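Appendix B. Extra example for self-study. Work through it before the problem class; the solution is given directly after the inputs so you can check yourself.
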Amino acid sequence: MTAMSSRALSATVKWIVLLLFGLWTIIPIAIIITNSLKQPLDIFTASPKFVFTPTKDNFVQAFVQGDFEKYFVNSTVVALVSTTFVIGIGTLAAYGLTSFGFRWANWVANTFLVGKLVPVISMLLPLFVIFQKAGIRGTLAAPIIAHVALQLPFMVWLLMGFMRDVPPELEQAAMIDGCSKMQVFTKIVLPVILPGLAAAFILSMQYSWNELLFSLQLTSFDTYTLPVGIASFTGAVSVNAGESSAAATVTMVPMVVLGFFIQKYLAQGTTGGAVKG
Amino acid sequence: MVKSPAGQGLRARDGLLGVVLIVPAATTILAVMIVPLIFAVFASLYDYKLGRGANLPFVFLGNYKRFFQDPLAIKSLINTAVYTAVDLSLCLVLGVGIATVLATLRPRLANFLRAIFTMPLLISPIIVSLIWRYMYDPQYGFVYWLMRSVGLGDWFGGLSRPSSALACVALADVWNVTPFIMLVISAGLTVIPDELYEAARIDGAGAFRIFYRITLPLLSKVLAVVVLIRGTDAFRVFDLIYGMTNGGPANSTSSLSFYAYKAAYQDNEMGYAMAISVLTLIALVALFGPLMRNSARAAEAGK
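Solution. Structure tokens for the complete assembly:
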């Protein structure tokens, strides 16, 4: 084989690989979105049906007649409140651990990282019993507290990574100019680590919005979140394909749209700056 | 630096401020993570059932002994290990492969495709399970339609046969999280200097040789992080199994997390469930702890 034809061959293979991966990525998403717009007769066909008359019935059924509007509000509250606490408490702790020269700071950070290993089920079972006794199981506070605690160790570790990158000269200069430690924090550190805060915000929102297991057992009928509502479809004997697809579509679209803007933070964020792109 | 008494005073006060800043996070983690975990360890020593009242029989390590004599528990452990291995290796091959191919494209096109390919990563696992339940529907599902159209309709077991169900669940997870590996590896690839590739090409090395000799070794640190994050996630799998198979058919997809959940909420064996969850945590620390220490050290050294 000549060099020329082998290059043409590898280019062809490359495009075939990209095309197949594109189809593999898009087909499942396309199916759930089109299902949400289809009448039952158009969904249950032996071979996929591409041409159909779209209907909004499924969305009406899930959100107006069903309870998904309520779940949507619950999910928004849980995600926003838990993220606010995670970022607020986490940023303060990360600053405390990086900027005061504590010798035990790295040890604490690495111990925090072990928190990333804890299976949700190991936390859920005791929290379920404790929250039950404390009388907060079934309220929105229950999943919020669980989400904050599960996320905090990793987020502190993540934000510490970004804070270590703040040039010490900047902080020293501000101190000489008479800034207090807290002024250095608000005027120097926070603006510099803004990309880190954005990454932490998005990761935390995404986690809380998508989380199932805590919410499944810590909420009750009035406080169900979107994933719990969707899980109720998968447990049913005969699933309402249209309604469940409509609920799933509304739940996933905000996060997927968000993903378009923040893909570079996703890699950097989840690996805690171990990978720099 | 001259130490003035005033400076000393400032430093002591700052030290206190530093501790105060850490207190809210430390308290939350202590109260909502560490104390509950300790409580779980204690409760796992009792024959603990919800609604039973105060007199719980103390069984010491009985629940742990039961785990190793319980065929379903052992099966769940094996399922979890197999699932993690299959899932992780498929994700790695696909993710590294796609990232490598994308790196050869013009940056603008690569970024566009990367954004498209990232979509599944942002979808909640419970929605992923709903989507793939439709994909695997024996009558109307796309996967079956595809299998039938290439004449494999009868051969394919999907979610309804014990021999194929676990692999089918793993495939749905691969769909969900391969983009994560693609993103991280893509970021890792940009750090490798082009001169290395050029030098190798001048020496006459082929594409595969370059991949094995240059790309993979230089990615090893990044790969360790990916294996750590994805491996621990796969080992804790719950949502997909809850949503797709409910552990069946014939317990062929029951994972440790799922089995603990079932013991707690279906069989009301809270003590046993806590023992299973503690064992899951121990297994995770044993399997991934060493990798985590390396990564933490690398992250610090990289600063």
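Self-check: Chain A touches chain B through 105 residues (CB under 8 Å). If your reasoning did not lead you there, revisit section 3.
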